[in-house]
Amino acid sequence: MLLFCLEKRFLSVWSVSVLGKRTLIQCLAMLICNADLPQFKTGSLSKSPLKNTCVPGLNCYSCPGAIASCPLGALQNALAEGRVPFLVMGLLLLFGIVLGRGVCGFLCPFGFIQELLYKIPSPKIRKNALTKKLSWFKYGVLAVLVIGLPLAFFFIEGYGAPFFCELLCPAGTLEAGIPLVLLNDALRERIGSLFFWKLSILIVIVVLSVCLFRFFCRFLCPLGALYGLFNRYALLGIRIDAGTCTHCGTCAKHCKMDTTITNDRECIRCGACIHKCPKQALSHTFLRSFKN
Fold first, then answer.
1. Helices (DSSP H) in 18-128: which residue ranges?
2. Is 124 left (phi over 0), alpha (psi -120 to 50) or beta?
3. Would 208 disulfide with which of 215, 249, 256, 270, CB 3.0-4.6 Å?
4. Residue ranges per domain, the chain?
5. Are 237 and 99 in contact (CB under 8 A)?
6. 75, 191, 198, 199, 230 from 194: Cα distances, Å
7. What is the pLDDT of residues 173-195, one digit of tens each?
8. pTM, rounded to two decimals
9. How far is CA 69 from the centre of its chain?
10. Buried (b) or exposed (e) across 167-198, using 16+ Cβ within 10 A?
């Protein structure tokens, strides 16, 4: 009974003070992840002691102000060196079990940047059957670029590389590549074709994010794919009151992600469905099992 009362109180505070201020939480998450602000003046990397740990969302290790590592970069580097990344796997498991893709909705800096881009007035492409199918593509990126190629090159050559970071990740280009090139004369003299390849990818993703909600998150992000595996069973989720819900479909209609039901692999716990539900049948749930 005591646990139930505490949870009810927690959720009521959550609904009032968090859901209405999700943007503030996203801003704070971005600031905390890149809290070593003086490094943005020097063009050098932060030497924070937290670099041996990981933040929950996609935030590049090489961003001048980054105080901790990106979980994807840390995972790839360990696999490329033939090490078992126990710490990274443990942190990913913890984040996934507790929040699922709530990490994407509240704590991911690059996800927040995409949401800001989507606010730019432009023709919008809404979710449809094609985008739903394309949302599976990020699992291929996870399997091939994050896990498969680093391991394959390690076993063949004796060393691998963080292929996702080097070849695709737009967060690394935006948060690290561009600032470091602008601020560091030595790096600016050494830029080559790889930098322009990554810059081209970033430009494409930025343009598409203006007309497609969270383009990178939905179709390419392997971190979102990984958290999506935990989504249905994570401690934080969306609860449906079966006695109140009329199955009108309003929640799915107003969801900008490629969800068909609440708590599926694409749900980022943003709460848009909660506010749009005409029967108030939806709510955030925590520390309680849910099977919808």
1. 22-33, 39-42, 71-80, 86-99, 102-106, 109-118
2. beta
3. 215
4. 22-231
5. no
6. 22, 8, 6, 8, 34
7. 999 999 999 988 888 888 899 99
8. 0.89
9. 14
10. ebbbbbbbbbbebbbebeeeeeeeeeeebeeb
